[in-house]
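Hey, I'm writing a tutorial for new members on how sequence and structure tokens pair up, and I'd like a real worked example in the thread rather than a made-up one. If someone can provide the structure for the chain below, I'll link this post from the tutorial.
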Amino acid sequence: MRLSPISQIIAILGSAAFIGWTIIATAIFLLDTIGSGNFRDQARRDQAIYEERLNALALERDNRSQEALAAQQRFNIALEQVSSIQSALLTSEDHRRELERGINVMQATLRRYMNQREILQVELDATATQIDPENGIAIDANTAQAIGSTMDYVNDTLADVSQQRDYAHARSLRAHDQMASLELEIQFLEEKANQIFRQLEDAMTISVKPLDKMFRNAGLNIDRLLEQIKRGYSGQGGALSPISYMPDGLDVVDPTVNRANNILNQLDKLNIYRIAAEKAPFAMPVKGTFRFTSGYGPRWGEMHRGTDFAAKSGAPIYATADGVVTRAEWGSGYGRVVYVKHAFGIETRYAHMAKIRVKKGQRVSRGQRIGDMGNSGRSTGTHLHYEVRVNGKDVNPMIYIKAGRDVF
């Protein structure tokens, strides 16, 4: 069979192109195989370090929570003791004031009776000077008896008033001693409560600050986030309700109560952050052995709007936050894809699955399995294409994953 020169040239060029493509493909495959091994080992090491740090942080978080609860209980007990002692101190102060008023009244009575005795003594002396033994002038017996009775009554009254004054004075001294003892006890309890407050405040700082940093690093508006969670969880009452304590008859601001309410506000904020952390995609969509094969950003002249995770076929894929499935079907270039709508206007997408394990409208929780890793759609190999979109705009998923690593 004869071939024309043009046919021969085409055949030679085709053969050369096929041989060249085979060489290039083989080289790419070898490089990818070598790189896969290195990435796999690195991913295993990173995964082990991440899981170890996660366990340590979870243990520390639990310990801090237990310490905070124990400290709060101790504070409540100390607050009750302080309240009881303050009430006793106020009662003692009122009693002391009554004793002082009684002493003043008795002293006034005593002075009045002494004045009366002096007046009677003057009258008695005047009467005595009128007696003239030489002329036989004497005081009438009835008059003398009346004067003697009056003097005896005045003396007895003065003795009783003096005794009552001494008794009231002794009671006043005992009241002063009781007040001094109560003041020392209050000072001790205030120092103890201050130490409990410092422990609680340190625990709140350690617990809340990393969470606050995590949400800020993720680009979320903290004030809007807290307000949105509060609207969804707006029940009143319970252990985190503000303390409202006001001693009877006093209209003052208690710094201890304000300090306790600040701690309760931090506990409430920590609780809100815990709820928000479940609703924002801070978790990893894959676990176990995997490697990152492509990051977010331009790739081959196009915008790669997510992060790719490669693992064995059928590897579990997990929801990264609580939400509702809005799409679970074939999605053209995405292949088998699942869309999950979360709070704060966030949506996550999981593409190229081998199997979908959820359906549209289903509620899912963070860490719940939603599918299996595969190679469906426009894909060059088994992997997961993972996207995060905020208010419809794609963002780098690693922003949330890295922010979550700093805390969890």
